[in-house]
Hints:
By secondary structure, this protein is an alpha+beta fold. It is 58% helix and 14% strand.
Amino acid sequence: xxxxxxxxxxxxxxDLGSLSAAARVMDMSAAVASxxxxxxxxxxxxxxxxxxxxSLRLTAEGEGFLEYARAALSQLDxxxxxxxxxxxxxxxxxxxxxxxxxxxxxxxxxxDEFQREHPKLTVRLLLGDRIADLFRQPVDI
Length: 141
C-alpha cells in the first residue's frame, strides 16, 4: 500500500523539480526522501522520476501517474476536512428515555436550549412510566 507521505513527496518533487527541495519543504533529509521515492517506485513497479546529481525530471510513467497522485491527495485532504468539520459540530440522532414527569418538567426546557445550541442534532425523547429496556429499545440514554 502506498504511503501518504511518499505520495506527497513525489508530487512536491515533481512540482519543485528537485528531490532535495521537496525534502526541505517536507522537513526531511535528502536520504529519507530518496528512500521514500525508491519505495514508491518499487511498490508501483515503475520509475517515476529520472534523476541525476544535478537534475530531476518526470518519466513518461511519472507524468501519467502525477495526475492520479494529485487527485488522490486532493481526495484525502477533502476527507480530512469533512471529518474535522464533523467533529466541530454535534450532529446525528440522540434518543432519550425518561419517566413522564421528569421528562416534561426538567428535560424539555433543557433540551430546547440544547437543540438551539446544536441545530444539527435531532433529539427523540421517549416518555413513559415503565422501566426502559435499554438493550431492546433504540435508546442512547
